[in-house]
Amino acid sequence: MSLVSGLLFGAGLALGGMTDPGKVVAFLDVTGAWDPSLAFVMGSALLVTFPVFAWVRRSARPLFAERFQLPTRRDLDPQLLLGAALFGIGWGIAGLCPGPAIANLGAGSPEILLFVATMVAGMWLRDRTAAITG
Amino acid sequence: MNVLIDVDSWLRAAAGGLLIGLAAAVMIVFNGRIAGVSGVLGGLMLDGNGGDRRWRSMFLGGMVLGAVLLTTLVTALPAGRLQTDWLGMAIAGLIVGYGTRMGSGCTSGHGVCGIARLSTRSITATITFMAFGTLTVFVIRHLLGAAS
Predict the structure, then answer these.
(1) Which value does ipTM take for this structure?
(2) C-alpha A10: how far from its chain's center?
């Protein structure tokens, strides 16, 4: 089912316009010629996931696995805020977040391949420096 | 503020969002996992847990294939417009990777799944990266004047 989920995810990102960095930056450009359409992507995705996660809260286990593996942390730590802020800056520069970057790999853009490569390097670097930054 | 009205693109966006929501639903209902792309990718590349690799690769491979199938079989889409040069892409990728790993997620894990779970951490993260994304575009386009 991971494959099915991935297929739906990739198709949805492409259909929704998320794989076009120009559209993403136009969505983030609220003081310019603002293109609000990507708000509809998030909005309609949440229309599906809200009732589904309400079901998850009432269910004992998933259909094909032993248990749900959900994040358990509740605290707001500096790493969450700093990490999200850094991510937002990178997102604004390139107009790509991790999902659309991956979904774009089939289109064969060498620039986006570079983005994905340095993105993995960034994740690795975070693990290497976690002892310093907390 | 100037708002672009393009109903056709809004409908496509809403339809795409439904598919993304469905993807996240399939992942949690059947496999009991969060369909968060940065988490799935980071786990595959860095956490090195043998039995875990399969579903992570299937999901990410499916994403690549899903986008290709949609554009070849269902509807032709305009080519993506890159927003920066090679150096910009390299730096942005590095920051996105570092930030999502540090902040435990991205638009899919925190946004699509975390908000639906009513997670305070995810709602806070989503507001934060939206705000910094908006601010970054403002600085690049309107203060530094790199408007295209």
Answers:
(1) 0.95
(2) 12
